[in-house]
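Reply to dn_fold:

You asked what the input looked like. This is it:
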Amino acid sequence: MFRTLTGALLGSAIAVAATFSATGSAAAAGEVNIYSLRQPFLIEPLLKAFTEKTGIKTNVVFAKDGVVERMKAEGANSPADVILTVDIGRLNDAVEAGVVQPVSSKTLDANVPASFRDPEGRWFALTQRARLIYAAKDRVKPGEITSYEQLADPKWKGRICTRSGKHDYNVALLAAMIAHHGEAKAETWLEGLKANLARKPQGNDRGQVKAIKEGECDLALGNNYYYGAMLSNDEQKPWAEAVNPVFPTIGGTKGTHVNVSGIALSKSAPNRDNAVKLMEFLSGNDAQEIYATANYEYPVNPQVKWSPLVESWGRFTPDDLPLSAIAELRGAAVKMVDRVGYDG
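and this is what came back:
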């Protein structure tokens, strides 16, 4: 059962519990309740496979934001068993808010490398996603841009499109720039990037690629899996075919900036055992292969291969900056976006 919510805090804990359980028992056997910031179409194949394998029903509430605030308001009465989210910052927010609890699982430890999980077991990454530069095939030569730093080069003035600087994906990238270069140099870079924009930041990652196709800009920032999604969509395929995906370096010799999607166990977790089973399943081979083939993401489980389509885009070296460093610098990044008036 999927239900989409809008806004930060819609309804009460009682209303959400009713959403999850028609029987009125949040702890009904054979269920697991999920608060998800991941779009329904991305997780539905995974949850269907989980139910087919275990017989456990999944109940999902999807929200674009406000999940952590909702869980804090619900407290011990929250019906949520797990939170599924994108971006290391969102996972860190849940930890700092005290709405998740640690999990000790040999299966999770075996499937998820230590660099992709919280040392105390409070969150586990499920996929990696690379932040790419998309370059117009007919207006940008191969090798003409190879790093994020080059986005601030005046040669690109009026040629770059991005979504809002305050979106999680761009905030994480800016946090990585701060970690590698320090605040002063990162701010100079952001000012240079702003000066090169072809239009006011707007839309989503796919919208930036569409703008390249339509000739509005020549370069754009976007996550890798959107490229696969566009190639599989008849309407959007021409957008994707108009660009080359570039895996940029950061900090000189470092690799491509990556972020993660992940999962954490709710502190309230009325169906704790089922929730842990879901977490273990999502880290296992079957689910990781679905992530790879259906969602065009990079599995964190080292036993699972990339999909052939994703493999065809080329191999890359991920930046080895600890995810914790990105989470810690998100606040500084958001303030920087405001200071330079990036979205204005």
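Residues 1-19, 21-29 have pLDDT under 50 and may be disordered.
Hope that clears it up.
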